[in-house]
Amino acid sequence: MKKAFLFLASLTTLFAADIDFNAAYFRPDSGEIRDIYGEHWFLTEAKITQELYEMLNIWGGVGYTYANGKSIGEGDRTRMQIVPLTLGLKLKADHTVMGVTTGTAIGAGMRYFFLKINNHSDEVAQKVTRNGPGAIVEVSNAHYFTDVFHIDYYLNYSFRTFGIPRSKPYIETSPVAVGGLTVGGGLGFRF
């Protein structure tokens, strides 16, 4: 992951690029996941947006979130970790009002999820790891107060469902939906 981000960062020497460091609120789409791990998760992300042609931008990022919870029924401890990698395209329009440039963007792309679940129960798999592609749509705004520094905020929705984890035959489990709604913001730099 580190090499992929460094590769994306090296592209900034070719065109104007924004690098953002964000903190966000993540709400899983699955009601069952919210029942086990809670409704409110903290997500951190690093993103890079690179201008390709006029309003068209390529955007990539890496994030991390986790939550601790208790299984439904027995109340056994469990922990879920999610690392999403994003690559997509954005249409971005810049406009200036009262000396402050604002960049508004809408984008869509692929979000590749890495999932790890640790369970403290003999009834289900102790460790579950999955990975696979999903999708994301995002709307964002960035306010450029100088030529270099800006603040940004965004709203996105991602989706991906993994198959049913292994368990004892008498235990009911369901697919693991790792997508959801994210609202966040942060600081960025334009190079």
Secondary structure elements and pairings:
Blueprint (H helix, E strand, L loop, with lengths): L1 H9 L6 E12 L2 H7 L3 E13 L2 E15 L6 E21 L2 E20 L7 E18 L4 E11 L1 E2 L13 E2 L2 E11 L1
Antiparallel strand pairs: 1-2, 1-10, 2-3, 3-4, 4-5, 5-6, 6-7, 7-10, 8-9
Spell out the key features of this protein:
mainly beta, two-stranded antiparallel ribbon, 10 strands, 8% helix
Explained architecture:
The protein is mainly beta. The protein has one domain. It contains two helices and ten strands, in the order H-E-H-E-E-E-E-E-E-E-E-E. It has an eight-stranded antiparallel beta barrel. The longest helix is centred in the first third of the chain and has 9 residues, at 2-10. The model has no long low-confidence stretch (mean pLDDT 86).
